[in-house]
């Protein structure tokens, strides 16, 4: 299981990037955060960091 970020809900605030202990979240050219699945350790910290509810664990 890994975190997934809904591009339609992401507001590019960067909270999730700063909170991810695995450095598994980055931002793309469209200013939308995305998860680097190979780095995600399923800790869920990003879920609490996202005030927009754009992140789920699937």
From TrEMBL:
InterPro entries reported in the protein's UniProt record: 4Fe4S_Fe-S-bd
Start and end residues of each 4Fe-4S ferredoxin-type domain: 1-30, 31-58
Protein name: Ferredoxin
The species this protein was found in: Methanosarcina barkeri 3
Pfam families per the UniProt record, alphabetical: Fer4_9
């Amino acid at each position: 299981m890994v975190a997934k970020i809904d591009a339609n809900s992401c507001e590019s605030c960067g909270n999730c990037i700063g909170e991810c202990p695995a450095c598994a979240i980055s931002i793309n050219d469209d200013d939308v955060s995305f998860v680097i699945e190979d780095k995600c350790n399923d800790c869920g910290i990003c879920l609490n960091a996202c005030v927009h509810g754009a992140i789920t664990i699937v």
